Amino acid sequence: MSEKVIIFDTTLRDGEQCPGASMNTREKLEVARQLARLKVDVIEAGFPIASDGDFEAVQAIATEIKGPSIAGLARCVDKDIDRAADAVKPAGERGRIHVFLATSAIHREFKLKMAQDEIIRRAVEGVKRARARCTDIEFSPEDASRTEPEFLAQVTEAVIAAGARTVNIPDTVGYAAPHQFGALIKYLYEHVSNIKDAVISVHCHNDLGLAVANSLAAVLNGARQVECTINGLGERAGNTSLEETVMALKTRADAFGGFTTGIDTRQIYPASRLVSHLTGMVVQRNKAIVGDNAFAHESGIHQHGMIQNRATYEIMSAEDVGRTSELTWGKHMGHHAVRKKLEEMGYKLNDDEIRRVTEQVKTLADKKKHVYDDDVRALVEGAFTEVPQIWKLDYLSVMTGTIPTASVRLIQADKKEPTADASTGDGPIDATLKTIDRITGIKGSLNDFNVASVTSGEDAIGEVSVRVQFGERIVTGKGNSTDIIEASALAYLNALNRHLDEQRRRNETEKPTL
Ligand code: KIV
Ligand code: ZN
C-alpha cells in the first residue's frame, strides 16, 4: 500500500489572513462543507482568540462538520490555548489545537526578546497545557526555515516529548529553496531521536513562488503532512496551493515518491470557485489546475493533436479536477430536479434558496440559449453570500453617449419607500456607482474592478468583482448578471452591504498579530 500524505487545509485561517479576504461565519461554514466534500484530512478553521467572530466560526465548524479533524490556532499563551480548546471541543476526538511559537534568531531577539532556553520552556509548557485539554496537538516553530537547524532539532524533540503528535515546519516568510528545505527535513529525521513519534508537517509561503516546490521537496525527505490553501490564498503572496500539490502528487507519482492523498480531486474546481467567490480573490486566468486557461487549447496545432489523442497536450483531465459543463439545465425544471442537480454539484441549500435558484434558472433560461453548470454555480454562490441586503437594487437605467447618466432606485432595509436619484459620470459604470453613493450617503472608492464571463458565449453571465475602500476598510463584493452595468451595481452594493454588516458586528477585540 502506498503511503499517505495528510492534507491540512488552512484556507479558513492563514488564507483568511489575506487582506480583504475575510468571511463571515456562514461563509466559513460553506467553505468548510466543501472542504469536507473535498475530503481534506484537517481543516484549520480559525484563530479562536482573535475575535468572538473567529471563535464562533471555529465552534460552528467543529459542531457541524463530520469527517476531517478541526484545528484551532493558538499562540503559546494560556488564554489562547484555553480559547482554542473550547472552540474545537464539539469535534470531540477530531479536535486539534495548533500551538505556535517563533524560534528563529531574528524573532527571538526582536519580537519575543527570549533566549533559546526560554523558547523551549514556553513551547513545552504550551504543548502540555494544550495536551491536558485535547489529545491531538500540533506544534509549529514559527520561522523554522530561518532557525538554526541544531536549535530547531532541540525544539522538535522537546515538543514531541511533551505530547505534540504533529510538528509543523513553517517557511513563514517564503525564504526557503527546495533543495535546502528538503535537506532541513532530512536533518531533523537524522537528529531528533523521538521523531518517529510524530508526523512532520510543512507549511510554506509563496513569496518566491516556491511554496509548492518546497512542500514537495519536504515530502520527498519525510514530511507526511502538507499545509495548504485553496487557490494558494494566504498572507502576502499566499500559501502552498492545495490543488497544485495534490495534482502534482497524483499526476507525477513517479517523481514524487508514489504518495497518495485522500482528496476527491473532482471537488477541486468547485472548491476553487467557492473560495474565489466568497473572498472576492479572483483566480488568475493562467493559474495551474483551476485558472480559466488551464485546460484551454488555443493554437491550431494543439487542437489538432488533442482531437487525435488528448494526451498529446494534456497531462490531466479537466473532469478529474471537477471541471465539467453539462448542458442539463432548462426553464422547465422544477425545484426537486434543481435540488437533485445541486446536490450532485455538492451544494446543500435550504428550501428557500432552492426556490430562489429555480426562479433564477428560469429567468436565465429565457435570456440565454444554453444554461451550463457554471452559470448555475454563479447563481448559487450568489445565494450563499449571506450579506444582509441593507441596500438593495430596485431599478437601474443608464443612458450612454457624451454625458453618461444613471438613474438608480434603491430599497433600504426596514424602509417601505425606495429612494431614487440620478447622476452623471465618466462612463456608465462611474455614473451608476456615483448615484449609489448619493443615495446611500456613503462614499466608497473603487480600488479594483474585474469582469469575468462565467461561461462562454455571447450571452454569458458576467461576474464583476470589486474591491472598495470605505474609510480605512477595504471590502470585496461580487455581482452576477447578463448585463455588465447591472453586475457592477450589484457588486458595489454587495461590498457596501458587507462593509455595513461588518461595521455593525465588529468586535471590540483587536486581532493579535502573528
Ligand atoms: O506561516 C506561519 O508560520 C504560520 C504559523 C502560525 C504556522 O502560519
Ligand atoms: Zn502561515
Describe the structure.
This protein is α/β, with parallel strands linked by helices. It folds into 4 domains: 274 residues, Aldolase class I (TIM Barrel), CATH 3.20.20.70; 29 residues, no CATH class; 58 residues, no CATH class; 119 residues, Double Stranded RNA Binding Domain, CATH 3.30.160. 40% of the residues lie in helices and 19% in strands. The strands form 3 sheets. The protein has an 8-stranded parallel beta barrel with strand order 1-2-3-4-5-6-7-8, surrounded by 8 helices. The chain has a 3-stranded antiparallel sheet with strand order 9-10-11. It has a 3-stranded antiparallel sheet with strand order 12-13-14. Helix 10 packs across helix 14. The longest helix is centred in the last third of the chain and has 22 residues. It is globular. The two termini are 39 Å apart. Bound molecules: 3-methyl-2-oxobutanoic acid (KIV) and zinc ion. The site of 3-methyl-2-oxobutanoic acid has 10 residues, from strand 5 and strand 6.
Features:
binds zinc ion; 4 domains; 14 strands; 40% helix; three-stranded antiparallel β-sheet; 514 residues; binds 3-methyl-2-oxobutanoic acid; eight-stranded parallel β-barrel
Molecular shape? globular
The poorly predicted ranges are: none
CATH class call of the largest domain: Alpha Beta
* Domain module tally: 4
CATH level-3 fold name of the largest domain: TIM Barrel
CATH architecture of the largest domain: Alpha-Beta Barrel
CATH 4th-level superfamily of the largest domain: Aldolase class I
Mean pLDDT: 90
Please provide the ordered H/E string of secondary-structure elements.
EHEHEHEHHEHEHEHEHHHHHHEEEHEEEH
Strand segment tally: 14
Structural class call reads alpha/beta
What percent strand?
A: 15-25%
Largest beta sheet: strand ordering: 1-2-3-4-5-6-7-8
Helical content stands at 40-55%
Distance from first to last alpha carbon: 39 Å
Largest sheet entry: 8 strands, parallel, barrel
The whole-angstrom Rg is 24 Å
